[in-house]
């Protein structure tokens, strides 16, 4: 027994020694593992740092300003905004510039004070006059992107000539109201926008209001800095409200859109009024499409209602309008879905921002008194649901695409009583009679034609001059068929798989 105890003790001692040896070996293994891990991490950081230094040396903004930015983008070295370069030194920013781009150690007060020259040949080639207006267009600015003058400054990648508010000054040979040098250090479109906003002293857009946006002169939205600066000279449009409106230019001016209605067919977007902005498009709908809308809506027509302002509560809808209406869903209907897509590509506004089509029927002597399509928060102060739906003014109806579905021989015109005329070049007074169709601008029904009128200015503010009404149908035998297609400045609620597909299709054109 004593020998058994001694043997057990010896065996236990050996087991303990073996366990201790295993623990020591484990500690050594873990120590080696941590040491190896730390070494690998340091090597990875070193490799990443070396790669970043090499990549920046290849970046088209590095080095001389004469480097071709377009070549750099096309080679694939920088095609998106998601490739930031770490700043080693902070920028010097003016105290009143909250959005100052803190990149590359720029001394912004010095950079902004330095003189910027312009290449006159490129400026002429930009042909800004083709899009400028005889009067200011609030919230819309023309930008000419030009090459920097080599003898001027070596720290610029481009020069932007700004024609503020689209105004043609002087009328014979307009000159830019501002020249902005674009430093090579800028790396994103948001930084360029901040520079333009500060240089033009544009007011900040805070809260739920949409950020400003830059478009081609045909309404294609830019998403990256590289595409903005790639082509020179290039004519762009900055819109403060963040959504596209067709530049008015002057009454009678036509923007041409190829292949919108049919392949090989050019659509003319013709300006009918500058104040308010009204454009007209003939033959936008085919006769079959117009007939299809009428056929789909006819069984459902009911007397129209109105959203009453605080001052009008207690009044009957018939005091304002006597027409009939039906909101026609565009889902699961190939013809209506095709019209959805066409409206989006005409207005350059995503169809996700649209309501369903409101089909209207006016019989003899039926009408709709003058009104606005936007919702003024001040007029609905007691309606909390309305205020929340329009985000207290940040969200609103931007554009109305108004369809004329048949011809009317007498009456039935759409009247804009406050539209600018020779007598009232800056817009007419508030009418005394909201049923009077004798003032301002009138557009008469023509089957297949549409007009676009904008309830908001390019700045995003409400346009009081967009007041409009549907005039009496004077032909006793006629019925006027028309439709509202309302587009908001933000996404609305009526989405479908087809509409989502059209949104994606439009966004694929963004640059």
UniProtKB/TrEMBL annotation:
Cofactor(s) required for function per UniProt: L-ascorbate
Domain (Fe2OG dioxygenase) ranges: 353-489
Pfam families (UniProt xref): 2OG-FeII_Oxy_3
InterPro entries: Oxoglu/Fe-dep_dioxygenase_dom (IPR005123), P4HA-like (IPR045054), Pro_4_hyd_alph (IPR006620), Pro_4_hyd_alph_FE2OG_OXY (IPR044862)
Gene Ontology MF: a single term: iron ion binding
Annotated spans, Disordered: 1-30
Compositionally biased spans, kind Low complexity: 14-24
TM spans (from-to): 37-55
Polar residues biased stretches: 1-13
Domain of life: Eukaryota
Keywords: Dioxygenase, Iron, Membrane, Metal-binding, Oxidoreductase, Transmembrane, Transmembrane helix
GO cellular component terms listed in the entry, alphabetical order: endoplasmic reticulum
Protein name, UniProt field: Fe2OG dioxygenase domain-containing protein
Source organism of this protein record: Chrysotila carterae (Marine alga)
Taxon lineage: Eukaryota, Haptista, Haptophyta, Prymnesiophyceae, Isochrysidales
